[in-house]
Amino acid sequence: MEITKDSHLTPRGDCIVGINANYGCSDLPNELKEKLRQPESLIHFSIIVDEQKFQFTAYGDPQLILSHDDDIVIRKSRFICPRTLAIGSDTSSDLIPREIIKKLQNPKTKGIFEISVD
Fold this sequence. Notes:
- The chain has helices at 30-36, 98-104, and strands at residues 2-4, 16-18, 42-49, 52-59, 71-74, 84-86, 111-117.
- By secondary structure, the chain is mainly beta.
- The chain starts with a strand and ends with a strand.
- The chain has a single domain, classed as Jelly Rolls (Sandwich), CATH 2.60.120.630.
- Strand 3 (42-49) and strand 4 form a beta hairpin.
C-alpha cells in the first residue's frame, strides 16, 4: 500500500491509495522514526475519509531506512527500502472498502492517514 506526494497516478499504480500527500518517509518526525525502528513495534494505521475509517496493523523493524522524500509504503512482505514505513501488514490496498476507494478517486476528496505505534 502506497501514499505519495506525487500529484498523479500511472496505470501501474494499483497499490497507491493516496496522492498529493503532505509527507514522505523522510518528512516524518524523528521521534516517530525511532519508534518505527524498535524491534517488533506494532504500528496501527487508519485511513479516514469523511465518516468512514479503515484500520490495519503492521510492524516496524530496526533496519527501516525511512529516507524517501515522496513515498510511504506499507508492505505485507519483509522487504525494506527507503520508501518502506512498515512490514508484515495484515492487509493490502485491495482490501480497502470500495466506498473509501471511490471517494479517494475524487480529486476534491481529502483523506487522513493516521499512524500510531505501540
